[in-house]
Input
Amino acid sequence: MKLTVYLSGEIHTDWRDDIARGVADAGLDVELTGPNTNHGASDDCGDQILGAEEKPFWKDHKAAKINALRTRKLIADADIVVVRFGDQYKQWNAAFDAGYAAALGKSLIVQHDPALTHPLKEVDAAAMAVCETPLQVVEILRYINRDS
Output
């Protein structure tokens, strides 16, 4: 069964690579998509494409809207959305992606450290599965792809 899986969330670790390796090693028929993970390019796309802004608000506003074009399309096309919350930064964008995916009726897998269980209880409640590691995400995808 071919699946398209959108990988949302923190961009400061290599969790996406771990999932990609696990999917490849398991021979799963899974296409992985995700946001632009180049932090600088993501932050600067509005200025680079549409022209520089004096105020940081407008720079961020333009970049957020351009990035949302990609995010909305890929989440809409996904069969499953995986949202990872790291422990270093507050990822408001990841929470927004989880809510957007839930509103679209997408199957949602959330991954985070157990220490974040309480602050993410509403996000976890919308998920079909809550994991702690990328390997657990791969194992869920392997189970879904199982023939029998």
The helical segments are 15-26, 39-50, 56-77, 92-103, 121-126, 134-145. The radius of gyration is 16 Å. The first strand starts at residue 3 and ends at 9.
